[in-house]
Amino acid sequence: MRYPQTFIDDLKRQADIVRVIQDYVQLKKKGANWMACCPFHKEKTPSFSVSPVKEIFYCFGCHKGGSVFNFVMEMERVSFPEAIRLVAEKSGVPLPVMVDDSRFQARRLESEEVIELNKWALEWWEQQLELSAEGRIARDYLKGREITDETRKTFRLGYAPDSWDALSSHLRQKGASQEQIDRSGLVAKKEESRSYDRFRGRLIFPVLDIQGKPIAFGGRTLKDDDAKYINSPETAAYIKGRNLFGLHLTRDEIRRNGFAILVEGFLDLIVPYQFGIRNVAASLGTALTPDQVKLLSRFARKVLVNYDGDQAGVQAAKKAIEILLTEDLEVKILVLPEGADPDEFLRKSGASEYHRRRGEAQPHIQFVIDQAVRDRKLSNPADKEAAIDEVLPYIRAVRSRLQKREYFDIAMDSLRIGDVTLRRELWQSIRSGIRSSPRGSESTFKRAQVKPTVAEERLLGIVFADEELGAGVLRMLQPEDYEDLATAPVFRALLKLESEHRDITFESLREETNADPEISALLPMLMMSESLHASNEYYSPEECLFTFRLMKLQSRIDRLRDENLIAEREGDNEKLLRISAEQTELTKRKSGLLTEAEAMQIGH
Ligand SMILES: [Zn+2]
Q1: Which residue of 57, 166, 261, 317 has the lowest C-beta tally within 10 Å?
Q2: What's the rounded Cα separation, in Å, for the pair 121 and 170?
Q3: Cα Rg of the chain, angstroms
């Protein structure tokens, strides 16, 4: 399943890199480029730059760079097709049908239909909550929970009237067919007979996807119904366990903070949000799923689990830890006093007290150990063994060797296991379970291993900065100038593009260097280095090339001098002779070059 190549090419031309990146970082115009503090590394002065002309970004600090797609892939931690989709959406370019997958297309259409009906339902419910006489019961409930009008609007809360068909008739009036309404999950069916409104007399919490589209709903009873909460069933638009409540509002704050607070219920997110704690996501009722963790890990690598303090909450937290660890996230646990959930605690004790408790959150291993030794006596061998068995899986699930060892030592000390042989045996049993797939290798960026010399960096900088001058330089370039350089593929690609009169862009260069990851990682740096060497002096192609050749020779001469010193120290006479011959040759070439330059009146 993939997008047609023609579409990708079109999108590359149409996508505005500044507009897309602006969604993530605050860009300021500086000359031809836009600058910001880098979202990929910590810094106080901006070294992250975006060139709308070259359609690339590059950070002079951490050297990450590339196209708008590379940026989105790294920022959202998504695959290339997913990045295509996001860039298209942000650029307002309609997505085409993915190549050869008609079932996917049918499901997508149905999903769009469900979302359309959800939108109608939500707008109507919002009105009912705000204006209807019956909605008063919901307004009073919110008042009791100290939820402000602003918060209510932000989360788009609604009220579903206590009626069997008020919503259905509204949807029919808007033009929905009965089949569409049945497929939407907004109604339920009693056996084979007619369907009726699923949510009746309930406060509505919409579940919005990351783009803010309503995909499902939760409804809280406002009477003494047995079912405190009911939820949408799965539909074409909603698969359980794939979404996190509130993430479309909190994702940026999660990224900024570098960690997410994971809570259970709707209000456990909404109330902290109102108190200014906005790096929160809610897992919603069911146990946390690997899909939810993958989604969360796009925005932060650290998670603070803050579930209810009751026994059910503790069990849910332990399950969550296991899943978070398999995704290689760092996990801490916050248990609020007296089993309070975040909603209650914040309204009672306020934000600063919450932050204080948060600062004292336990690393996951300590929480697991505490739970394991509770109600057990470590002096009793059977109890001790049971505690060990309970704790070890949580250490085994840790991906990093170093952290694994650290947690293991903490656990051994806490469980008072002093016997060296036993400790070694337990460590072996844990290590044998290691799965070797470090997550770091998934990064969409390859760090450049190739390091260009100053000479080639400068010459390429000129070629990229000045079209006319660059063309002149390329025309005069000889294979021996570049063939022995790390950047030889770039030179070859440039010459090819120039001879075919094609535009020199990041994309065309990537293509001509066969998308070699080493070279692709290098290109943004080379393409942006002009701003480092920008000057108002006028050079001719001859002068540029002369400086380049001279610098290249000189750096070889310098390197030979170092090699010479080493050979002397090692008493390697054979090598010394070879070096000496080469030195003579290079010096001769250097003086030849200088004479030539003098005749042409350049280089001074
Ligand atoms: Zn950076």
Answers
A1: 166
A2: 8
A3: 32
How many secondary structure helices (H) and strands (E) does the chain include? 28, 16
Written as one letter, the residue type at 21 is I
Mapping DSSP onto H, E and C, the string for 333-347 reads ECCCHHHCCHHHHHH
User: What gap in Å lies between CA 340 and CA 22, rounded to an integer?
Assistant: 40
| Torsion angle (degrees, nearest 10) of CA 67, 72, 74, 76 | 180
User: Do residues 196 and 166 lie in contact, with contact meaning Cβ atoms separated by under 8 Å?
Assistant: no
User: Sign of dihedral through CA atoms 143, 147, 148, 151?
Assistant: negative
pTM of structure:
0.60
List residues, by chain if needed, whose CB lies under 5 Å from ion ligand 1: 38, 40-41, 59, 61-62
Start-to-end C-alpha separation, the chain:
60
Structure-token match 């692709």, residue found: 520
Q: Can you give the pLDDT at residue 125?
A: 98
- Listed as ranges, residues in the chain with pLDDT below 50 are 434-448, 531-532, 536, 604
Q: How far is the CA of 477 from the centre of ligand 1 (A)?
A: 33
| 266 Cα–ligand 1 center, Å | 36
**Strand 48-51 versus strand 33-36 pairing type:** antiparallel
CA–centroid distance, 404 to ligand 1, in Å, is 29
Q: How much is the mean pLDDT over the chain?
A: 86
